[in-house]
Amino acid sequence: MTTNDLQPLIGMTLDELRSVCTKVGLKPFAAKQMAAWLYARRVTDIDDMTDLSLKARAALKQAYCVGREAPLTQALSKDGTAKYLFRGAPRRDVEAVFIPDGDRATLCVSSQAGCKMNCSFCMTGRQGFHGQLTAAQIINQILSVPRSEELTNVVFMGMGEPTDNLDAVLKAIEILTEPWGLAWSPKRITVSSIGNIEGLRRLLDQTKVHIAISVHSPYAPEREQLMPVERAWPVRSVMELLRGYDFAHQRRLSVEYIMWRAVNDDYRHADALADLIKGTSARVNLIRFHVIEDAEMKPSSPRVMEAFRDRLNALGVTATIRASRGEDIDAACGMLAGKNRQNQS
Ligand code: SF4
C-alpha cells in the first residue's frame, strides 16, 4: 500500500473513528483519544498519538494516515489577506482565503473543486465542476492553513456551493462544533448558499450555523440571468422557507447582494429587495463587483452603493457595504479560480 492509498483520519467524526477502532482491533474508547490528537492537539503523524500503544499505532498506520496537507502555494495581499491553494480534485485545486481583521481572523473555505451553478459573474462558476471535496479536504483547509490557531471564524464562501456537497459540509461542521472536535460555537461559522431548498432545510434543521443567501436581484427574470439556479429554486420560495426559522436570536441570516452599474442598483431594486426579505430578520451585505475576465458588467459606484444602503436602512432593513479584501491577489468575492494542474505542465 502506498502513502496515497492511506485513508485520512482528519475529516472523520467520532462515530467514524469508532469504526476505525473496530477495524484495526482497538477498544472503542481509543476513538476519543484519536479525536483529541487530531482536532485539539492537531498532530500531523499517527506516531505522535502517544497514549495509543505502539502496537495500536502500527495497526493504524497499515491503512490510515493523519491526512494533513500543507497548502501548495500562497499569495499575500497588501491588505493582509492571504490566499492559499490546496490540493482538490485531480485536475483542479481549490483556494482558501485567510482574512485578518483586528481581533478576528476568518477563513473562507472551499467546499467543491469548481462549481455546477454557473453564476455569470463568478470565476469559479466559469471553470465548471471538477469534483466534490471530502470532509477531510475541507477540515484540512482549516487545520493546515498558516496561522490556523488564530482563526475565530469560518465561512463556507469559497469555491463551490456548500449545499451541493452537503454530507461533507455537515460532517465538517460537526467536527468544528462537537466537544470531541474543535468545540467551536456554531456562531463562528457561516454557510453561504444560492438557495437549494432541500439542502438549506437540512442545514437549518441539523445545525445552528449562520446562513448567508446570495440574492443579487429581487426580480426572478433578472436573477435567472445572473444565477440560472433561480429556475430550480426561486428566491421567493427560499425566503418563504427561511421565514419558518428563527433568525432573531441564536443564529443570523444575511443576504448577499453584489451591485452592478445600471443592472440592480436603483431604488426600484432596493424597494423590491426590502419587500422580498420582509419577515426574515435578514441583514443585507452589499458587495462591490470585482471585475473578472471578459465581464461586460461594471461595478456600481461607491456613491450609488451608499445611496442604495441608505434606502434599505430607511425601509427598516439593516444594510452595510462589505469592505473588499484581497482584490490584488484575486481573492475577493467571485474571483476564486483554483488552478488547473494540466495547465501547469
Ligand atoms: S457564485 Fe457560488 S454558486 Fe455561483 S458559480 Fe460561483 S461558487 Fe458557484
Q: State the shape.
A: elongated
Mean model confidence by pLDDT: 94
What is the number of strand segments?
14
- Which fold name fills CATH's third level, the topology of the largest domain? TIM Barrel
CATH class of the largest domain: Alpha Beta
What is the count of helical runs? 12
Written overview of the protein:
By secondary structure, the chain is of the alpha/beta class. 32% of the residues lie in helices and 20% in strands. The strands form 3 sheets. Strands 3-4-5-6-9-10-11-12-13-14 form a 10-stranded mixed β-sheet. A two-stranded parallel ribbon has the order 1-2. It contains 12 helices and 14 strands. The longest helix has 13 residues. Helix 1 packs across helix 2, helix 5 crosses helix 6 and helix 10 crosses helix 11. Strand 12, helix 10 and strand 13 form a beta-alpha-beta unit. It has 2 domains: 63 residues, Orthogonal Bundle (DNA polymerase, domain 1), CATH 1.10.150.530; 272 residues, Alpha-Beta Barrel (TIM Barrel), CATH 3.20.20. The radius of gyration is 21 Å and the shape is elongated. The structure holds iron/sulfur cluster. Iron/sulfur cluster binds next to helix 4. The site of iron/sulfur cluster (SF4) has 11 residues, from helix 4.
